[in-house]
Amino acid sequence: MRRLVLLALVGLAAQLVDGSLGMGYGVTSATLLVSAGIAPAAASAAIHLSEIGTSLASGVSHHALGNVDWRTVLVLAGPGALGAFAGATLLVSLDARVAVPVVAVVLVALGAFVTMRFLSPRRLRFGGRPRARALAPLGLVAGTLDAVGGGGWGPVGTSSLLASGRLEPRKVVGSVDTAEFVVALGGSLGFLVGLGVRGIEWAAVAALMVGGVLAAPVAALLVRHLPARVLGVAAGGLIVLTNVQTLAQWADATGVTRGLLASIVFTLWVLWTAWAVKLEQPPADPSRRAQGILA
């Protein structure tokens, strides 16, 4: 019982991050499930099955608050589901460590680019929509990596769309989260085909789903009111932080080394976010400043 409560709390925390930054549910949940002794394929299966409920609740909440660009969702979701199905059936017989370092390096570079873009003091402008010819392959790649690694749809999809600079951040997060419902269906079907019903940790699925569904409306509300610059920097920093740790783990770095790397990147992330908040502050009114001096 204690284990199920812990999993529900993890689902709640993971969905709170995922629903407000567009990523984090799969990575957070996969880390905990694998560390608890669940095989990677079974862990990813539990995550994708629970995401059917959490992503549905998240999509409804984001839509209600105007955070969704439905054209982006429709073009992104289909290829994402195909990629997730292919990745799920592949994971059953694949060593995922082969693709881990390449994907992590690409995501660190994307995360750094997104962070620097939103830290620029220039005024942010968003116009147009991502092109369908770019969204379709993006969905296919992100869906495949998501199923293979237990998480990847958000980091790849959100970072790529933020880097394009076309959609405002809240609509990037809302659209990626909403499309994830279809991706979760595709991945779940692939795992059911590959593992069968008995290979699924159904208690873990239920616990993660309950926690995630409860957090979804709160996360959608947060992203609706967070300034675009702060949201972009927070998302970019999270991408860098999680993937630097992924690379350190892949390289079999010591616990001390990983802790030091995490501390450095986390400190930078906090500083970046604080600077983004400062940039969002309105400039001081010179007349009021003069009045204060005269007083």
UniProtKB/TrEMBL annotation:
PANTHER family: MEMBRANE TRANSPORTER PROTEIN MJ0441-RELATED, MEMBRANE TRANSPORTER PROTEIN YTNM-RELATED. One of its GO terms (cellular component) is plasma membrane. The keyword Secreted does not apply. It comes from Nocardioides flavescens. Belongs to the 4-toluene sulfonate uptake permease (TSUP) (TC 2.A.102) family. The chain crosses the membrane at residues 29-49, 70-92, 98-119, 179-197, 203-223, 230-248, 260-279. Keywords: Cell membrane, Membrane, Transmembrane, Transmembrane helix. This is Probable membrane transporter protein. It holds the Pfam family TauE. It is found in: Cell membrane; Membrane. It is a multi-pass membrane protein.
